[in-house]
Design goal:
Layout: E1 2-6, H1 12-21, H2 30-38, E2 42-49, E3 52-62, E4 71-79
Antiparallel strand pairs: 1-2, 2-3, 3-4
């Protein structure tokens, strides 16, 4: 069973592991991630399966001058190899 959560500053260590392993980032700036997670316009969602990250996505809420509602820019998404193409995975 998958649980989807929006990462908060308390999740910075999980976010670090996700960025290094799943998004294959070579370096990690702890303060930059804390700043990212503190900004309400930034989003990092984690798909957790048995308390382990199975997938993640991050993006930004953007305001466009002619629109009243912000739009969401999906910047990056990744799914752990073991969690891909599994028709039995349920979100709830």
């Amino acid at each position: 069973m998958l649980t989807i959560v929006r990462a908060k500053t308390a999740d910075v260590e999980t976010a670090r592991e996700t960025m290094l392993e799943m998004h294959e980032r070579k370096a990690f700036d702890h303060d930059a991630m804390v700043n990212f997670l503190c900004d309400p316009a930034n989003y990092l969602f984690l798909a957790l399966e048995d308390k382990r990250v199975a997938g993640s996505l991050f993006g930004y809420s953007l305001v466009h001058p002619p629109m009243r509602e912000p739009q969401f820019l999906l910047y990056d998404i990744d799914v752990r190899a073991q969690s891909r193409r599994r028709p039995s995975a349920k979100l709830w």
